[in-house]
Please model this.
Amino acid sequence: MILCVETSQDICSVALFNQGQLLSSKESTEKNSHNKLITLLIQETLTEAAVSVSQLQAAMLSAGPGSYTGLRVGSSALKGLCYGLQIPLMSMPSLQLIAYQASLEQEADIYIPMIDARRMEVFEQQYDNNLLPVTAPRAYILDEKYISTLEVEKKYIACGNGAIKLTDLLGNSRNINIMSDYFPMARFMGKFALEKFNQKQFENLAYFEPFYLKSFGEKAANDI
Model:
């Protein structure tokens, strides 16, 4: 019985899984409200599934990158829950979760999840069709050079709320599809949560921190 939480972007979502099967989920699109909603959504999710908090065996967080505030809220809530219940905490990259959600709808050689980081900057990473990372995650300011680095013989899907920024840069590129209406959601985390639980890939509660990717004010990789 694993509780999953996603707070890295505007949507705050919670889901409960038993052996990887979704039992219940709750989501809210109310902006800047993660702090006041997270506990309520957890309670509603458990109540809907008729599961008590004492039945939880683990919890999993979509750990970033994304909103500093959102990630801190999710991390604090789950670390406190896991500490109180003495259950393990797990985490997964928010970018991988976006790629997985896109892969459920369209096939591609490479998935490029992108999270909006203001102006033309995105947090991005490339994954193959087995959802294995091809590149390291990075903060990048999109420009024409970015398109030229993509291989013409491969089919790409740029997904996530940052992908829309590619629209004016594509030119004659035919091998890149944009799926911008994708936010990472807790109800898609069950597969990853069960795998990590079975492999005992647990976080250290005392030292775990969300993956912010870059510190406040730090420049993107190509911002000279």
Observations:
- The helical segments are 34-48, 68-85, 94-103, 144-148, 190-198.
- The domain at 95-179 is CATH 3.30.420.40 (Nucleotidyltransferase; domain 5).
- Residues 98 and 162 are 11 Å apart (CA to CA).
